[in-house]
UniProtKB/TrEMBL annotation:
It comes from Aquimarina rubra. Pfam families: Rce1-like. The keyword Nuclease does not apply. It is an enzyme of class 3 (hydrolase). InterPro entries: CAAX_protease, Rce1/LyrA-like_dom. GO terms for molecular function: hydrolase activity. Keywords: Hydrolase, Membrane, Transmembrane, Transmembrane helix. Residues 3-97 form the CAAX prenyl protease 2/Lysostaphin resistance protein A-like domain. The chain crosses the membrane at residues 35-55. Its EC number is 3.4.-.-. The keyword ATP-binding does not apply. This is CPBP family intramembrane glutamic endopeptidase.
Length: 102
């Protein structure tokens, strides 16, 4: 996957799916903080590098998912407080850009 896709396309699609679709749907039946936490856990789960369990050349680490959990909580809170998907998308874009620069 190209760096540009990781910085521009992935954040938009992930935020639309996790915040707009899942979190919005969960807030119908659950408290907002419960929806944010559950959605953030799912978001972190997809970032676990499961493929590395099967290949010796990749190191398995939960570090990426642990950090992603906190990013998901921030994105979820931004989405909930602003009532708009734009702040969480912008945060995710900045997060991914920063991870490539650093």
């Amino acid at each position: 996957m190209s760096v540009i896709a990781s910085i521009l396309v992935v954040p938009v699609t992930e935020e639309l799916f996790f915040r707009k679709y899942i979190q919005d749907g969960l807030t119908i039946n659950y408290k907002p903080y419960q929806a944010i936490i559950f959605t953030s856990i799912l978001f972190a789960f997809i970032h676990i590098p499961f493929i590395s369990l099967f290949y010796d050349f990749m190191d398995f680490s939960f570090h990426r998912s642990y950090i992603t959990l906190f990013g998901g909580i921030i994105s979820g809170t931004l989405f909930y407080k602003s009532k708009s998907i734009i702040p969480s998308i912008m945060f995710h874009l900045f997060w991914n850009l920063t991870s490539y620069i650093v």
